[in-house]
Amino acid sequence: MSFSLPSTRLRPSLRGANTSLYQESRRSAVRTIPAEVVVRAKAFNDESLQSTSVQSTSASRQIVAQQSKGPSPIVMERFQGVASQLMNQRIIRLGGAVDDDSCNLIVAQLLWLDATDPKKDITLYVNSPGGSVTAGMAVFDTMRHVRPDISTVCVGLAASMGAFLLASGQQGKRFSLPNSRIMIHQPLGGAQGQAADIEIQANEIMHHKSTLNGYLAEFTGKPLDTVMQDTDRDFFMSAFEAKEYGLIDSVIEHPTDVAVRSSGIPMYAGEL
């Protein structure tokens, strides 16, 4: 005797039976696990999660540390404090290349010191290899624009536009430390493109050359032809040679010499 049942009724009943058997076997297996094993497993999982969290936090701190490169806040705060103290003494520094950033800051400092006390001298310390002619001319024009006398001091190196700004200080108040070096030369640059564009740039450089040589002749009291010949190539001088040339007025050793000389009192010590 044979019989058959519809498959649509058989499969659900078998699926339900299998599910019930699986759940029952799982409950019995859990009941057979000792309680201390369950506690240890839970503790292990918690420890693993905590370790992972610590490692992730440590890694994130390392990433933040790697991304936050540069001077620390303490160093920056100290640097800003020194700059503020120098400004209180009416001292400005040109330390590094003559570029738009450094010269814009110097222009702002000159204008601020002029507004605070137009009768008290300002001292500009120069330690620069030179740089942009147009940026340097902005400082030069501002030095002539403000009312206080600008005293200049060479510390280390004053080359190219740095030497020009050193020599552009108030006559009688241009100084250099004994081991400093001063260098003057003609402007340099380059251009590329069409012939007409190159000609425009060449004419601009020649304009700067003529302007700078004219001012150097005014600063030093030398004939323009002599200045043009001397600036045709790099012309290095010691502090004493720069004094003889007329780029500076005195070679000094002590900071007080700058203050005494700038005040108009004849120097009695420290002048070389």
UniProtKB/TrEMBL annotation:
Which SUPFAM superfamilies does its entry note? ClpP/crotonase
Instruction: For this UniProt record, give its keywords in alphabetical order, as a comma-separated list.
Output: Hydrolase, Protease, Serine protease
What Enzyme Commission number(s) does the record list for this chain? 3.4.21.92
Q: InterPro entries in the record, alphabetically?
A: ClpP, ClpP/crotonase-like_dom_sf, ClpP/TepA, ClpP_His_AS, ClpP_Ser_AS
| EC class name | hydrolase
GO annotation terms (biological process): protein quality control for misfolded or incompletely synthesized proteins
Protein name as catalogued:
ATP-dependent Clp protease proteolytic subunit
User: Gene name?
Assistant: CLPP1
